[in-house]
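#lab-general

N.A. 3:47 PM
ok so I finally got the sequence cleaned up, no stray characters, all 174 residues accounted for. can someone with queue access submit it? mine expired

B.Y. 3:52 PM
send it over

N.A. 3:53 PM
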Amino acid sequence: MLKIIWNKDDFERVKSKLDQEYHLYMTQDPNEVPVGKVGLILSEKNLHKLRPILEIIALEKTQVLLQTVSGWLQIHVQEIIYLEAFGDEIFMHTTTMSSQVIKQPLYQLEEILKPYHFARIGKSFIVNVSKIRYIRTAINAKLDLELINGTHLEVSRSFVKDFKNALGIQKRED
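B.Y. 4:20 PM
back already:
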C-alpha cells in the first residue's frame, strides 16, 4: 500500500478530475493523515496510476515567471487561457485578472508553456488546451475553438495538424 498526503485546498482543485479518471480511495481520517490534510491510498496493483496523478497535482501547482511592462509576474499556468500577439505586444488572457502585456516574444512563451499542455494555433496565438470547451470544424480546413470564457479562436490551416497531434486526435495517414 502507498499513501500520498497533501494540502486539503490543493486537493480540492483536482478532486473531481481524480475521481472521474482514476476511481481512487481518498481519506481525511485523522488516524490515516494529519488534520487539514488529505490522503490518497493506492494498492500495489494500481501503482501504474501514480505518475499521471502526480502530474495532475504538479500541473495545478506549477507557476511561471513572465516579464511584463511593469516588472515580473508569477502566475499559475492553469490560470492562463491564451496568449495573443497583436503588433509588437503580447497579451496574456487569464481566468483571474485582466489581460497582461508580456514583454517576451511568442516563440519563447511557446517553449516555456509547451510542457504544460499549451499549443500554438496560429502565427499570433497560443492556447491552453485545458481551457478549450468545444472544437468545431470551420471552412477552409480550419478549426474553431470555443474557450471556457466564451472566446472563439481559429486554428489556422497550417497549424491544424500540429494542433491535432498535440491533442492526440490526429488521424493516422496510411
